[in-house]
Each structure stands twice: as structure tokens, then as C-alpha cells.
């Protein structure tokens, strides 16, 4: 059954290629846009069966595509979302899986798009309500779960161990003979590497310490 698709990709060449592939497999691309704001507008206008979006795109050239997907999913619960990414970003994959419903979610590396039949099949599966994660993303997520601290540098582990002892950043700085600014930078890096977002459900510093204690 043909799908009504809204597509967002800031590279004109790749965007045209994706439209060509999807059309070849019998689907209708109602809108193909190049930035996150246009994606939100197009999805509201065309009420698609699935949204396919790049993660990084204008206007911020950060995770604007993913943020737009979150907005759209909040506006229409269960809207199937397939996210494309140039690189494996564990925090993006985790964020995507945290959207709420267990259905209609996909995360695919752009390298897989060249296998057009597999790409088209993934689009159809996600549109039908499946959750499809790129195999390499799954492997990395599993490795991270097995050892959530492995991404930390030795110094960051040292800082985290002192955090677990209840030390403030100023106290950690004195113990390690570094500036407090350096400690702040280490703490920020630790939170980022442990994929701990400030989402209102818990203080990230506490969550980091809990992760350390569990590991």
C-alpha cells in the first residue's frame, strides 16, 4: 500500500535520491524539505503516514531534525518517525526510543540507504508500527549498557568517583589540584557521555553517581 511521506534532508543531492527511491517503490512524497521548521510545517499540512528526517539540519545544524520529530510526535501520538544519521549518536538513539510509544520508531545510518530495498523495507516496517534500529546502533547501545563508564577518560572516572563521595566541584578541584572550571568541564563531559539529559525526572548529577555505583 502506498505511503504518504514527508521527508526532511538538508543535502539536496541526498534528498532527491531519497525521493527517487521512495517513488520507485510506489510511495508518495508529499513534501521534501531542507530544514526542521519546514518539516514541522509540512507534517502539519500533509498529515503523513511516516516522517523521515535527518538528525542534523538547519536552522541550528545540531539535532534540529530530531527535535522536530519530538515536536511532531507530541502533536500526533504514534506518528511513525524514521531518523537518518550520518554517524552513530547513542544519545540521539536513546532520545528517540524515549519518545513514549513503543511503535513506529526507526533509526538508520545513512550508509544503509544505498541498499535501496532494505531502506524501503525499513520505511514500510516503521510506518506499520515496528521499531527498527540500525544493527550497529544496537551493538553500540548494548556495549554501553554492559559498561556505561567505558567512554569516560581516567580523569573523568576519578572526578565521578569523588562525586559519588558527595564532594562538591570546589572540593574535587582542591583534591585533584586543578581549577574549579576544569572540574566543571569534566562534569559536563561525564553527563554528556553517560547520555544524561536534563528532562525534569531527576538531577543529572545524582543519576551519574547512580550509574557509577551500579557499574
Automatic annotation (TrEMBL):
The keyword Mitochondrion is annotated on this UniProt entry: no
Identification of the protein by name: DNA-binding response regulator
Pfam families: GerE (PF00196), Response_reg (PF00072)
Coiled-coil stretches: none
GO molecular-function terms, A-Z: DNA binding
4-aspartylphosphate found at: 54
Keywords: DNA-binding, Phosphoprotein, Transcription, Transcription regulation
Amino acid at each position: 500500500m502506498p505511503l504518504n511521506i514527508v521527508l526532511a534532508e538538508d543535502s539536496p543531492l541526498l534528498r532527491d535520491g531519497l525521493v527517487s527511491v521512495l517513488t520507485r517503490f510506489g510511495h508518495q512524497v508529499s513534501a521534501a524539505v531542507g530544514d526542521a521548521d519546514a518539516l514541522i510545517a509540512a507534517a502539519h499540512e500533509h498529515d503523513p503516514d511516516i516522517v523521515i528526517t535527518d538528525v542534523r539540519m538547519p536552522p541550528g545544524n545540531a539535532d534540529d531534525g530530531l527535535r522536530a520529530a519530538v515536536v511532531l510526535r507530541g502533536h500526533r501520538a504514534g506518528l511513525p518517525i524514521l531518523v537518518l544519521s550520518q554517524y552513530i549518536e547513542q544519545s540521539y538513539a536513546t532520545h528517540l526510543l524515549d519518545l513514549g510509544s513503543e511503535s513506529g520508531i526507526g533509526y538508520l545510518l545513512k550508509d544503509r540507504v544505498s541498499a535501496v530495498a532494505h531502506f524501503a523495507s525499513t520505511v514500510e516496517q516503521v510506518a506499520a508500527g515496528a521499531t527498527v534500529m540500525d544493527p550497529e546502533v544496537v551493538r553500540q547501545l548494548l556495549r554501553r549498557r554492559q559498561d556505561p563508564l567505558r567512554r569516560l577518560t581516567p580523569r573523568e572516572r576519578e572526578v565521578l568517583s569523588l562525586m559519588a563521595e558527595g564532594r562538591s566541584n570546589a572540593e574535587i578541584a582542591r583534591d585533584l589540584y586543578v581549577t574549579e572550571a576544569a572540574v566543571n568541564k569534566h562534569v559536563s563531559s561525564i553527563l554528556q557521555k553517560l547520555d544524561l539529559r536534563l528532562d525534569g525526572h531527576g538531577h543529572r548529577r545524582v543519576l551519574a553517581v547512580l550509574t557509577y555505583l551500579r557499574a
